[in-house]
Specification:
single chain, alpha+beta, four-stranded antiparallel β-sheet, 25 helices, about 60% helix, elongated, transmembrane, MMPL_dom
Length: about 775
């Protein structure tokens, strides 16, 4: 039945090949235009699991306390002392410039020049205070001395002023939408504006500008992603050389490359049609689409070339190759597509868009490389010059040697070695960490400008962006009750003594300091007042702009400043917070995770951890079902899947050896590797199955499968691996990590298909 459908489809296509090719041309022109309209999109909300419980807390209180999408600008005086007129002019200019950049939440811009940056001191009559920089500030020696004294009184050293007085900080929260246009903030354009309006304008020999925050990181990642175009060009050149060496024909080199590039144009154009943009992760997908397209194109030209050498005309050879490859190639590409679609189960926007982007790209390869390519080839006359006899003999000897893996003796050695290798890999894979394993921005190299700015701020200030905020929800006016604040104080003390927590801040700890101030600054009075009147007096000195309480005092965050955002640090702190919260939570008082940059990371890590096993089940489940439908044999399906599973485990072991954590950028790699790696086994086993059905011995069936498909399979593995290996030199660390892992998976999956698969076949079909 299936064979009849394929034959009918082939007959219809080749009878109308001119009109089919014209249709492809018109579609390519349309989608090529759509691809030219594609824009970069790196919205903050795409990078977080919005439906996670932490993120629901985050979005609920984002308006009152800001979110994780913040910017920190450290202004450094290269002379080592900020108290000079040049520095204060520069700091004021940076504050004012940042204040007026569209997309900045102006009420949340803080620095020495913010009216909300105030000091309080104890005097004979009680308290006195005012702005750290007074209204009549003069930028001279007297004025600077006044500001120096006010800074000491305000207790902002380490927060807005560097610990060594060499730098000062300007911080801001970003909006999700541009108030002027109502459209989402263009994160990459905003990052470029930060660079031009702050660093370029104000940095000189005396002043240095250091900028960190999600928007700036996204901008630097997008800048690094521009290098992808160069890698793409290099990959095309390398692939062209390899295809020519394989085919020995200029025409057979150009055609699969052109069809694969058409698939890339279609994929990019379809992204615009469905309303998506390119983000730093999905910008890598065209690479994969091109490489996968070439690999299937090589299978096609190999099949056509072999038939031409057997004496068929090019048109007949193209039609025959189409019939023989449509089902195995279609199943392989459908497996890739469904495998990528399983990534939709991960509730993170950037991964879901990657899944859709990759699925669209692989799906169109079915049209461009399994249908268009043979139709176009049929119009050309191919040379009928056979390979050099000596070369052909050497290749045949290689296939003879490899066919030994399909004998019981060699199969036993291969399978025992595979079990031992799997055991070692599994033991190592269990050590894999969820999250980032290095300091700074994990998407960038440690020596990148962004990470150098991060390390400067970490070294010179007591606080950084590594902040986790625990939201305390209570009844209105709850902060006027001693029982509530004492619970918060107890929570803060218990969490502050957790490894990885550098310091903490909350309304409870600040109220204690204010109470001491009301009692002549005596440290013995640094406690929470027990009477409501005294407590109201202490809390009343803390404005809502401090971020320590909301308007009706029903929400009071506890800020945890961590030493870093490494996976282990976050895991330890989250575990402690959950344990303490479970102990202290009541009907009227709830400690909820989490807000702040590290709160977002914690939610992301948990989402990745929860998605890991289901994603693997979905990927292998999809491949299993499609192979079962294709081969109609459980043994054949298992023979294809076992090598894939072994390689996936070894890839996870490699991640632990290279200190690569399982994060948003590396989670899709396993699905990509499995989805693409299954192609090798499908092509080889589909050829073997037909011969085994006709009663051929297993070793001979494998030998003839290698003769027919072996060169193309090995070539495909090498082409895919070399294509992504260029990513080793990327300015983006996450792209380099993906390149290492995908290179490993493409190569080892190919080896698994030509070594482990025949060994399994020798066991499953030993009677043959």
């Amino acid at each position: 039945m299936l064979e009849k459908l394929v034959n009918g489809f082939e007959s219809h296509l080749f009878r109308n090949r001119k009109w089919v090719i014209l249709s492809f041309i018109f579609i390519t022109l349309f989608l090529g235009y759509q691809a030219s309209q594609l824009k970069m999109d790196a919205a903050f909300s795409k990078n977080i699991p919005l439906n996670h419980s932490y993120m629901k807390t985050y979005t609920k209180h984002q308006k009152d306390f800001g979110g994780a999408n913040s910017i920190m600008v450290a202004v450094e005086d290269t002379s080592g002392n900020i108290f000079n007129p040049v520095f204060f002019d520069a700091l004021k200019n940076v504050h004012d410039q940042l204040f007026f950049i569209p997309g900045v939440e102006r009420s949340q811009v803080k620095s020495l020049f913010s009216p909300s940056t105030r000091f309080t001191e104890v005097v004979e009559d009680g308290f006195a205070g005012g702005p750290v920089i007074p209204a009549d500030f003069s930028n001279d020696e007297f004025g600077l001395n006044v500001v120096r004294d006010n800074i000491e009184k305000a207790g902002i050293v380490g927060r807005l002023i560097g610990n060594d007085y060499t730098s000062a900080m300007v911080t801001a929260q970003l909006m999700e939408f541009d108030p002027q246009t109502g459209k989402p903030i263009d994160t990459i354009a905003f990052a470029n504006q930060l660079e031009q309006e702050l660093r370029v304008k104000f940095e000189n020999d005396k002043i240095k500008i250091h900028i960190i925050g999600f928007a700036k990181m996204a901008g630097d990642v997008a800048e690094g992603a521009k290098g992808v175009l160069l890698f793409f060009l290099i990959a095309i050149i390398i692939t062209a050389i390899m295809v020519y060496l394989f085919s020995k024909s200029v025409m057979l080199t150009i055609l699969p490359l052109v069809c694969s590039l058409i698939a890339v144009f279609w994929q990019l154009g379809l992204l615009t049609v469905v309303g998506f943009g390119l983000d730093p992760m999905s910008i890598l997908v065209p690479f994969l689409v091109f490489a996968i397209g070439v690999s299937h194109g090589v299978q096609m030209i190999n099949a056509v070339r072999r038939r031409v050498l057997d004496g068929q005309t090019t048109k007949a050879a193209s039609a025959s190759a189409f019939r023989s490859l449509l089902v195995p190639g279609g199943v392989a590409l459908l497996s890739d597509t469904v495998g990528f679609l399983t990534l939709l189960a991960i509730d993170i926007g950037i991964i879901r868009e990657l899944a859709i982007s990759a699925s669209l790209g692989v799906a169109v390869i079915i049209l461009t490389n399994l249908i268009l390519l043979p139709l176009v080839i049929s119009y050309f006359e191919l040379p009928k010059t056979p390979d050099n006899p000596e070369k052909a003999k050497r290749i045949e000897n290689l296939w003879r040697w490899l066919s030994n893996f399909a004998t019981p003796k060699y199969a036993a050695i291969v399978l025992v070695s595979t079990v031992i290798l799997y055991g070692i890999g599994f033991q190592q894979a269990t050590k894999m960490k969820i999250g980032d394993l290095q300091g700074g921005a994990p998407a960038l190299h440690q020596d990148s400008r962004y990470n150098q700015d991060t390390f400067f701020i970490t070294d010179h200030f007591s606080i950084t962006t590594d902040v986790m905020t625990v939201i305390v929800e209570a009844e209105p006016e709850a902060c006027t009750y001693h029982s509530v604040l004492s619970q918060i104080d107890q929570f803060e003390w218990m969490v502050a003594n957790t490894p990885g927590v550098e310091s903490t801040a909350s309304l409870a700890s600040v109220a204690q300091k204010v109470n001491a101030g009301f009692n002549e600054g005596n440290p013995r009075w640094e406690i929470l007042p027990r009477t409501t009147a005294s407590l109201v007096q202490a809390v009343g000195q803390v404005p809502t702009t401090s971020g320590l309480l909301n308007g009706n005092c029903s929400v009071m965050p506890v800020y945890l400043f961590l030493k870093d955002h490494k996976a282990e640090t976050i895991e330890v702190v989250v575990k402690k917070v959950k344990a303490v919260a479970a102990e202290l939570n009541s009907d009227t008082l709830q400690f909820k995770l989490a807000s702040g940059p590290v709160g977002v990371m914690a939610a992301t890590n948990e989402a990745v951890s929860e998605a890991q096993l289901p994603m693997m089940i979905y990927v292998y489940g999809a491949v299993f079902v499609l192979c079962l439908i294709s081969f109609k044999s459980l043994k054949a399906t298992i023979a294809v899947i076992i090598p894939l599973y072994v390689v996936s485990t070894l890839a996870q072991a490699l991640m632990t050896l290279l200190d690569i954590g399982l994060a948003v950028s590396t989670l899709p790699v396993i699905a990509l590797g499995v989805g693409i790696g299954v192609d090798y086994g499908i092509y080889i086993l589909s050829t073997m199955s037909n011969k085994l059905t006709n009663g051929m011995p297993i070793q001979q069936a494998y030998f003839e499968a290698l003769v027919e498909r072996g060169s193309a399979v090995i070539f495909t593995g090498l082409t895919l691996a070399i294509g992504v290996s260029t990513w080793f030199f990327s300015a983006l660390k996450f792209q380099m990590d993906m390149g290492i892992l995908l290179t490993f998976m493409f190569l080892v999956n190919m080896l698994g298909a030509i070594i482990i698969l025949p060994a399994l076949s020798a066991v499953f079909w030993r009677k043959k």
